[in-house]
Amino acid sequence: MTALKEYMRLETSGLWRPSPDAQRREVGVSFGDATLVISDGAGRPLTHWSLPAVTRTNTGNIPAIYCPDSDATETLEIDDDLMINAIERVRQSVARKTPRPGWVRQISIGLTLLVCLGLSVFWLPGALTQQTLKVVPASKRTEIGATLLGHIQRIAGSTCRDPVGTQALAVLETRLFGNGSNGQIVVVPGDLPEALDLPGGIVVISRRMVEDATDPAVVAGYILAAIAGQSDPDPLAPILNGAGFGSTFHLLTTGNLPDEELQAYAEGLLTTPAHIPPAETLFALSTKAQVPVAPWAYAVDPTGETLRTLIESDPLKGNEAVPFLTDDNWVSLQGICRT
């Protein structure tokens, strides 16, 4: 499925430049439910772009030139009218949802106040949060996750995009999230207290977590621990709980969260100490992915003392895990930040 109901599948070719000093290369471009997937000639994903965050640098000109976000140096050239029209429809949809000054805003404010009065009488804040979580679509979650990632990148650096390393990362994504999943793993050069699970299926890990690891299972463990460590299965829930009634109501009625709330949340993620995820949840994820927990546990605590329960109760302990990265892929993944 794609983000537009009339297309079950939409693909074309394009010219992708991973950085300003790199050569352009011909790639395949797939228009998905919430992302653009850029693949090499063999069909291996090179990178995923969040559709709501995509920007165009040469409006009205052909070929159209796109970037994954307004600050990115990565570019993609497309001359297929059908694909350009599809991307532009998504971008226009996002633009229409952006609050505008004037009478439209005044009417929106008035309606918001009326509805807010009714909600304050009939709904509790918890009920409002649950209702909002039910109705926020996948595309909006991806947009919120991409916005959070942008704030994180301002502090931890732009995501690492070495092409060969990105291909290896795509193999890891498939192992952990399954074929056809919109899950996306990104690596930032700065340090993080732990891997971060953002709305829209985006998981952020640090360069140190990749380069210091002695086994691909360690990197996979950081990712699974981030997902298992959420206090709520929905990564959007802690954002709304922290934002409060007003911001949650704003998201429900306008489809947008105040950017200052997202910035504050992102900064909080970078200063919150790492915590140990619930064993039951972590074991369920590791068993499904067939990735042992012990390698990650020893990477977090080389003595094994603080994570002894996780190590000794690892459901895959003593079993040989199904390989998911070749030696070449593992070396490539560890070098994803080299450019």
Explain what the structure shows.
The protein has 339 residues and is α+β, with helices and mostly antiparallel strands. It has 2 domains: 11-96, Pleckstrin-homology domain (PH domain)/Phosphotyrosine-binding domain (PTB) (PH-domain like); 138-236 and 268-334, no CATH class. It is 47% helix and 14% strand. It is built from 14 helices and 10 strands. The chain has helices spanning 81-96, 103-122, 125-135, 138-156, 163-177, 207-211, 216-228, 237-243, 245-254, 259-269, 279-289, 294-300, 308-312, 327-334, and strands spanning 11-17, 25-31, 35-39, 45-50, 55-56, 64-67, 75-78, 184-188, 196-198, 202-206. The strands form 2 sheets. It has a 7-stranded antiparallel sheet with strand order 4-3-2-1-7-6-5. Strand 3 (35-39) and strand 4 form a beta hairpin. The chain is globular.
Q: What's the helix-strand series?
A: EEEEEEEHHHHHEEEHHHHHHHHH
Main beta sheet: strand number and arrangement?
7 strands, antiparallel
- Count of alpha/pi helices: 14
Percent range of helical residues: 40-55%
* Structural class by secondary-structure content: alpha+beta
The end-to-end span amounts to 34 Å
Report the count of strand segments: 10
**Model regions low in confidence, pLDDT < 50 over at least 5 residues:** none
User: Which term fits the overall shape?
Assistant: globular
Radius of gyration: 21 Å
Tally of domains:
2
Beta-strand level of the residues, as a percent range?
Answer: 5-15%
Averaged pLDDT? 82
Strand line-up of the largest beta sheet:
4-3-2-1-7-6-5
